[in-house]
Amino acid sequence: MDLLEYQGKQLFARHGLKVSDGKAVTTVQDAVSAANEIGYPVVVKAQVLIGGRGKAGGVKLAADEAEARKHSGDILGMDIHGHTVRTLWIEHASEIATEYYASVLLDRSAKQPLIMFSVEGGVDIEEVAENTPEKLIRHHVDALDGLSREEAVKIASDGKADADVIEGVADALVALYEVWLAEDATLAEINPLIVTPEREVKALDSKVSLDDNALYRHPENQALSDSENEDPIERRAKEQGVQYVKLDGDIGILGNGAGLVMSTLDVVAQAGGRPANFLDAGGGSDAAKIKQAVELILENDAVKAVLFNIFGGITRCDEVAKGLIAAFEEIGVGGVRIPFVVRLDGTNDVAGRELLQEAALPNVHAARTMNEAAEKVVALAKEQA
Ligand code: GDP
Ligand code: MN
Q: Are 347 and 316 in contact (CB under 8 A)?
């Protein structure tokens, strides 16, 4: 679960990381009152789950009420790389002497937490990693010992933080590591971590992802889920208890069981196609569940053709066929404008195929094997493009 900047900053504050006070608002009027209350200059910041807001015009300084009103009006409703701005964070503007970078994440290949620090902050850290890797300090932490203060000081000095703020940076690193560990985050990033002219070290931005599987340990974090900013189809799938992940291709994928869906993605890619989603209808999928799954897939306008790959075990292929027929009936045959390729194999597959044949749904194509199904669906999607 990704957090908005201001939510991440709330976690930061909980663990003693310095952040500016501010207020989250959703209207221009509330933004202006918040700014008046906080005191000028303020910074008006779009709250969306995507980086690069500054460059896109989603972060603006306001020196007075008129500017606060103008910037709030401009930024609310703005589209930032496909994300509509519905919430603003207004905070007292900081003076910046220097911008650093700091993050903690799990390095899966090293099986250890990884702390990164750089004095080249405020810019795209991937660029720093690529062009001046010597300026990005990477330090693995022993997960059992945790991050000691001495280690943090060494990271700050190895990274060539200004001498007078080594202690402040070390404090920030220790606090950031604590956020990552105590909140069960998968990523905790500060870019920029600033030094003010008064030489205070402070988090000006936050990027925090929490581990969904550990959310049950943090009841206070469960409410942070920002359903407004979630993909609407993914949100509906979650409500219906269906495993759905949106991808950026044009071939809708539906299977039962995560393993089968993953191999379906692979064969479609091998056949030269690009999957539009991962959708696992689960074991024991009955007709109602299949219908929901079909509707979810069709909600994505990018989908040009659908591959329906079912291996019957507990799931019975005749039930799946009934679900598909019911879905087509309900949506209306005219509503389903795109071709479906169906492969049914396993329990009751013969009965399932017979049902489909009797129903004679227009634009439904049967395939006997997974490879044949993949090739067919890729060809059909190309025809639609
Ligand atoms: P991002 O573009 O999505 O990463 O958003 P950030 O929160 O990192 O803001 C982008 C940039 O705006 C920062 O790198 C700063 O240069 C600038 N900025 C943000 N907040 C302030 C502030 O309080 N004062 C000043 N002077 N600049 C700010
Ligand atoms: Mn940033």
A: yes
d(CA 264, CA 309): 7
Which of 12, 38, 43 has the most ligand 1 atoms within 8 A of CB, as the residue to mutate? 43
pLDDT digit string, tens, across residues 132-166:
999 999 999 999 999 999 999 999 999 999 999 99
Tell whether omega for the bond before 362 is within 30 degrees of 0, i.e. cis.
no
- Tokens for 40, please give them: 């000028």
Claim: this prediction has a pTM higher than 0.85: no
pLDDT, tens digit, 9 for 90 and up, residues 193-223:
999 999 999 999 999 999 988 989 998 898 8
Tally: H helices and E strands in the chain: 13, 18
Structure tokens at 94: 């900081």
Nearest to 295 by CA among 329, 269, 318: 329
d(CA 346, CA 197): 70
**H or E element at residue 114:** strand 112-118
Q: Give the β-pairing of 185-195 and 207-210.
A: antiparallel
Q: Whose CA is nearest to atom 2 of ligand 1?
A: 54
* Cβ-Cβ contacts under 8 Å for 385 (sequence gap 6 or more): 250, 304
Output the pLDDT for position 158. Answer: 97
Q: Which helix (H) or strand (E) holds 251?
A: strand 251-255
Distance 62 CA to ligand 1 centre (A): 13
Nearest to 5 by CA among 213, 235, 174, 226: 226
Residue 75 Cβ inside 6 Å of ligand 1? The answer reads no
Cα radius of gyration (the chain) = 26
Report helix, strand or coil for 177: helix
CA dihedral 103→108→110→114, nearest 10 degrees, is 10
List, in order, residues 6 or more apart from 312 with CB less than 8 Å away.
320, 344, 345, 346, 347, 348, 349, 352
Q: Is the CB of 43 under 6 A from ligand 1?
A: yes
Gap between the Cα atoms of 62 and 43, Å rounded: 6
85 within ligand 1 shell (Cβ under 6 A): no
Do residues 243 and 282 make contact, with C-beta atoms less than 8 angstroms apart?
yes
- Dist CA 330 CA 211 (whole Å): 38
